[in-house]
Amino acid sequence: MIVEPSKEKEKSKEERNTEDTIIEPTQPQNVFALPDSAQKINELITIIQTHSGDQEITISGKVFLLNQEGIQKIHDLFIK
Fold first, then answer.
1. In total, how many domains does the chain have?
2. For FRET with 28, which of 5, 37, 64, 66 sits at 20 to 30 Å CA-CA?
3. What's the Cα-to-Cα distance from 47 to each of 11, 16, 43, 50, rounded to whole Å?
4. In the prediction, which pLDDT does 79 show?
5. Stated pTM of the model
6. What is the dihedral of CA 46, 51, 57, 63, to 10 degrees?
7. 59 inside domain
8. Residue-level pLDDT at 24
């Protein structure tokens, strides 16, 4: 089988373009570190206990299942 040099070069360029395209991993929106404030930790506990659901949120490596309202409240808590 004979491969034309021009087609081989095109293929190499395509492969290089694919390799040059780096997809940056995005920070998951529902991953948080434990807050350093005792008051925020208590609020966090209350939210987790009262808003159980089916959406995952990770806090300091621990996964919790919350509803959308609970996730929004946690987002708001961490923005304070």
1. 1
2. 37
3. 54, 49, 6, 5
4. 84
5. 0.63
6. 70
7. yes
8. 46
34: CB partners within 8 A, 6+ apart: 41, 59, 60
- Alpha carbons within 13 angstroms on the beta-carbon side of residue 14 total 6
70, part of any domain: yes
Please report, as a single letter, which amino acid is at residue 16: R
Angle in degrees, CA 6, 9, 10, rounded to 5 = 90
71 and 38 in contact (C-beta within 8 Å)? no
For the record, the structure tokens of 74 come out as 């946690």
Ordered per-residue pLDDT tens for the chain, 80 residues: 565 555 555 555 555 555 554 544 444 578 999 998 999 999 999 999 999 999 999 999 999 999 999 999 999 998 87
What's the domain range around 78?
30-80
